Amino acid sequence: MLAGIDDGPPTREGSLALARAASAAGIETILATPHVSRRYDNHAAQISGLVADLNECLAAERVDVEVLPGAEVSLMRAAGIDQQELERLHLGGGPWLLVEPPTAPGAHDIEERVAMLQAQGHRVLLAHPERCAPFHQDPQLLAALVRAGALVSITAGSLIGRFGAPPRRFALELVREGLVHNVVSDAHDVVGRPPEMRGALERAQLEPLSDWLTREVPAAILAGGEIPRRPSFVAPPAPRAGLPWRPRRSRLRKTLGRS
After folding, report:
1. Which of 4, 120, 125, 159 allows an S-S link to 204, with CB 3.0 to 4.6 Å?
2. Torsion-angle region of 115 (φ positive above 0: left; ψ -120 to 50: alpha; else: beta)
3. 214-239 burial: b if 16+ Cβ within 10 Å, else e
4. Residue 237 binned pLDDT confidence (cut-offs 50, 70, 90)
5. Is pLDDT above 80 for 121?
6. First-to-last CA distance in the chain?
7. Could you report the per-residue pLDDT of 174-222, keeping only the tens digit for each?
8. Is 109 helix (H, G, I), strand (E, B) or coil?
9. Per-residue pLDDT, 196
């Protein structure tokens, strides 16, 4: 959402276009979650300043969307960040930290790293695990993290195959197993990664969960309140498995800092 600091819009005009598209899609509040990683060495003060500037611009342009500060912190980078800085990277100033697990195969210490963050007082929200090879290799690992208090956020586009068939299948399996707590747009621009959520949920036949996934749980995360109970709903079965997932080469290169 913030211009020029990671792989989002490169200019303020791009940020405005993204905000307008979000408003047209019925989105009222946007969490700016720029990457904080080895590749994108962003900082809380920088993010907060850009959010304030963008909100002023949105008000001047009469775009009825509020942007709140946050970050998507690489799990592999988090241990090297000062605790006070990590707290300032929480979503909207609340207790939750959005954490990006490694996407490449072979990561063996995810559970330990998440537990360390939790022991330090951070409540952990896991970003797009349906696109992370370690969870494909060991689905029980994600279930264990949820039992230990982590929440799971998936990308709406994953539900309709925007990232390929295996992430789509895995995302739908996670919803069916009750391991998904919110769905986000993960928007980067208005064309390739638009701010779409409800349309994807409808296409995935998950509309009965839409308010819970896109409004009720996100509101509780921002407020630091109790996560509301999931509505009673049996999700449709995921499509049958095909070939095992392999990250695309371009995406694999990005795992040095982001996905």
Report:
1. 159
2. alpha
3. bebbbebbbeeeeeeeeeeeebeebe
4. confident
5. yes
6. 16
7. 999 999 999 999 999 998 889 989 999 999 999 999 999 999 999 999 9
8. coil
9. 86
Task: Quote the pLDDT of residue 242.
Answer: 52
Coil, strand, or helix at residue 100? strand
Say which amino acid occupies 209.
L
Q: How many whole angstroms separate alpha carbon 36 and alpha carbon 42? A: 5
**Residue 127's beta-bridge partner residues?**
153
The answer to whether residues 95 and 71 touch, using CB atoms and an 8 Å cutoff, is no
CATH number at residue 211: 3.20.20.140
Q: Is residue 52 part of a domain?
A: no
Structural domain that includes position 174: 72-253
Assess if residue 3 is contained within a domain. Answer: no
Which of 60, 63, 50 shows the shortest CA–CA distance to 3?
50
Torsion-angle region of 178 (φ positive above 0: left; ψ -120 to 50: alpha; else: beta): left
Whether 86 is covered by a domain: the verdict is: yes
Which residues are CB-neighbours of 108 under 8 A, at least 6 positions away? Answer: none
Band the pLDDT of 241: cuts 50, 70, 90.
Answer: low
User: Which among 74, 76, 248, 77 is positioned nearest to 167, based on CA atoms?
Assistant: 248
The answer, yes or no, to whether residue 97 has pLDDT greater than 50, is yes
- Crossing angle for the helix pair 110-119 and 139-147, nearest 10 degrees? 10
Q: Is residue 47 part of a domain?
A: no
pLDDT range class, residue 231, cuts 50, 70, 90:
very high
Structure tokens at 77: 């980078």
Higher pLDDT among residues 258 and 179, named by residue: 179
